[in-house]
């Protein structure tokens, strides 16, 4: 893994891009830098407890949330924000040209799924800086996809990886270290080293799930680079903790905040956020590919940049269909589940 970190600086150099003479760079300023400008250390710690680990994340946070922090008056919040603008002018309200946006896209890393066919319809692999959703019925390869990505995200960029660490938020007790070791062997890397670079957690409620996501920011600044955040699955604990139509509005509101937190992490740290979603029957469906639909409604749909439906095929073969993407057209690819993870059909 070729990654270097410059503590407290505005840049983390990740790796040399394989096809151009530039480096993939993640730019952020750690929230601790505010201490050099007369912001109290206790207040900085309170921000970190809310998952605000960088100046950029501070500006992503709604004012209401900042005002709700104990001891944070409107005057104090205004002072912190004014100081943050001085520390990192890029984090304020700025416009940029289309050319600048294009140049920033050069920092996007494509992480291989292990299948060349699936990578092809994704435009080269799972993108960093955004949320990719995989959904489907049981035994369609969702969790096997996550295990494979947890390994490939640690490969060098030249090998189709992300040269970074992985956060695995496991809400369904699906994480199996033995699978990680098998997949690592396929890619010729040490299984123990791969497991060492995975931060695994098992939340037991939707509140814990949201808290673990808030902890990713501080984790990335202290142990970065975090190149992949997996949530398997995004909806399980929300469905458990909220039942019936009477609690649906509250569930969707909290789920929306959760998805926004994940989206902010993806942008701030140039990380790929990959979520697994469950499905439910769609009685109004008229085509064979639409007999089920993903859970979470419009909240998950709008927050996910790329949506991929997985479907059972013959034997160990599975079918992936791009259902929504701002870059790639709708397309299908067949992949296979092997001892070494996701691969192409034989």
From TrEMBL:
SUPFAM superfamilies: P-loop containing nucleoside triphosphate hydrolases, Rad51 N-terminal domain-like
PROSITE patterns the record matches: RECA_2 (PS50162), RECA_3 (PS50163)
Keyword ATP-binding: yes
A biological-process GO annotation: DNA strand invasion
Keyword DNA damage in record: no
Domain RecA family profile residues, every copy: 107-279, 284-346
Similarity comment: Belongs to the RecA family.
The name this protein goes by in its record: DMC1-like protein
Species per Swiss-Prot/TrEMBL record: Tribonema minus
């Amino acid at each position: 893994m070729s990654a270097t970190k410059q503590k407290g600086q505005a840049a983390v150099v990740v790796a040399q891009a394989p096809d151009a003479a530039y480096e993939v760079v993640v730019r952020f300023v750690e929230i601790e830098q505010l201490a050099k400008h007369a912001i109290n250390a206790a207040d900085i710690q309170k921000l970190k407890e809310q998952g605000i680990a960088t100046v950029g994340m501070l500006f992503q946070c709604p004012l209401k949330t900042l005002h709700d922090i104990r001891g944070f008056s409107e005057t104090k919040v205004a002072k912190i924000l004014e100081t943050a603008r001085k520390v990192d002018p890029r984090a304020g309200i700025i416009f940029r040209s289309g050319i600048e946006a294009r140049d920033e896209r050069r920092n996007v890393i494509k992480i291989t799924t292990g299948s060349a066919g699936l990578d092809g319809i994704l435009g080269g692999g799972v993108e960093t800086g955004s949320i990719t959703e995989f959904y489907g019925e049981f035994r369609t390869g969702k969790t096997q996809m996550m295990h494979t990505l947890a390994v490939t995200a640690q490969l060098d960029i030249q090998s189709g990886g992300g040269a970074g660490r992985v956060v695995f938020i496991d809400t369904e007790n699906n994480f199996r270290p033995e699978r990680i070791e098998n997949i690592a062997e396929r890619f010729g890397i040490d299984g123990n080293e791969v497991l060492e670079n995975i931060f695994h957690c098992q939340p037991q409620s939707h509140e814990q799930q949201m808290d673990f996501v808030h902890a990713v920011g501080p984790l990335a600044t202290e142990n970065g680079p975090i190149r992949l955040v997996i949530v398997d699955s995004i909806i399980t604990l929300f469905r458990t903790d909220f039942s019936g139509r009477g609690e649906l509005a509250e569930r969707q509101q909290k789920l929306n905040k959760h998805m926004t937190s994940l989206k902010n992490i993806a942008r701030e740290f140039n990380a790929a956020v990959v979520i697994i979603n469950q499905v439910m029957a769609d009685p109004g469906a008229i085509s064979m590919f639409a007999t089920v639909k993903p859970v979470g409604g419009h909240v998950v749909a709008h927050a996910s940049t790329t949506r991929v439906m997985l479907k059972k095929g013959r034997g160990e073969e599975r079918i992936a269909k791009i259902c929504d993407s701002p870059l790639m057209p709708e397309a299908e690819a067949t992949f296979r589940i092997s001892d070494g993870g996701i691969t192409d059909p034989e």
